[in-house]
Amino acid sequence: MEKIRKGDDVIVITGRDKGKRGTVLKRVDETHVLIEGINLVKKHTKPNPMKGQTGGIIEKSVPIDISNVALFNPATQKADRVGFKIDGGSKVRVFRSSGAQVDAK
To answer: Is 2.30.30.30 the CATH number for 9-47+55-77?
Structure first.
């Protein structure tokens, strides 16, 4: 079970985008995640009339290491570590600071 999943609200804890918040769009591999609006780079592209692409400079998100992000705790409005707990025979994610369930509905 992963500590950070697709759709989680995370905050960057180190690096160029420190302090920014975003939503996880995709887990690229075991150690990298793609976050909406975080770690943006400019990519220079050539026009390709066969595909209908115009040339120019586009901004795109690139994956960031999972160790540089932490789950955002809405109760404390801060970054928080994640732990696991067995609840009624199923494994659930909990915030380490408060013990509250991450996916509490």
So the answer is: yes
